[in-house]
Amino acid sequence: MSEKHYIKLIVFDMAGTTVNEDNVVYKTLQLAINKLGHNFTLNNVLLNGGGKEKLQAIRDIMKPAYNSSKILEKDAQIAFSDFVIMLKKSYENLTVNTYDGTTELFEFLRKNGVKVALNTGYNTKTARSLLDKLNWSEGQTFDALVTADDVANSRPAPDMILLAMEKCGISNSKEVAKVGDTIVDIKEGKAAECGLTLGVTSGAQTADQLTTADPDFIIDSLLELKQIIRLKD
């Protein structure tokens, strides 16, 4: 890899990118939706719901099964309410890990002048419950957290990345990289006009699926960022 890219801020997705929670959120989404009599596969849930704010994810997953938008919305609200309750129970005893080297990578980046932000389609309560399990804290492990609760428009709109930039004092989006495990993560980065968008194969979607969003790089491990990002002189 000949040319490295000068980046001041990396915005990382959480589940499937930095946090390994064995797709429990999407498995729970699948259960909540299928309680209504559907038979959506986990692959379908991951492809159509990956990375999105979770009520919107439910709408997008279920949409092909409905002729009426009114009935779709009613059932989506039911499924979302069930999902929130079911996820709380799932999380109580959930073992959460990071992907190998993630915490050390964050430390390396921050020591070398690169800000680290986390963003997620989860609500703030869910995001913080994951961070608590990892003993990650804002201002120590990473620089900023932005969740779907913090913005008017969730992915693929650029709002979360723009807020992360504001929190981290970065004004030029070309000095920002977005890393995520879904197509919608990559689309979010492009909408924010990030200097780099990267898809990582550790989570919800495959390299072939990620390729459809035309990221700058597809990586198998976050540690590959060391070969892509140019640090300050």
Automatic annotation (TrEMBL):
User: Is S-adenosyl-L-methionine there in the keyword field?
Assistant: no
**UniProt-listed PANTHER family:** PHOSPHOGLYCOLATE PHOSPHATASE, PHOSPHONOACETALDEHYDE HYDROLASE
UniProt-recorded Gene Ontology molecular function terms: phosphoglycolate phosphatase activity
Which is a GO BP term held by this UniProt record?
Answer: DNA repair
Q: Name one GO cellular component term.
A: cytosol
- NCBIfam families, per this entry? HAD-SF-IA-v1 (TIGR01549), PhnX-like (TIGR03351)
Q: Which UniProt keywords apply?
A: Hydrolase
The UniProt entry, under Pfam families, shows: Hydrolase
Q: Which SUPFAM superfamilies does the UniProt record give?
A: HAD-like
Protein name as it appears in the record: Phosphonatase-like hydrolase
Q: Which InterPro entries match?
A: HAD-like_hydrolase_sf, HAD-like_sf, HAD-SF_hydro_IA, HAD_sf, PGP-like_dom2, PhnX-like
Which superkingdom is the protein from? Answer: Bacteria
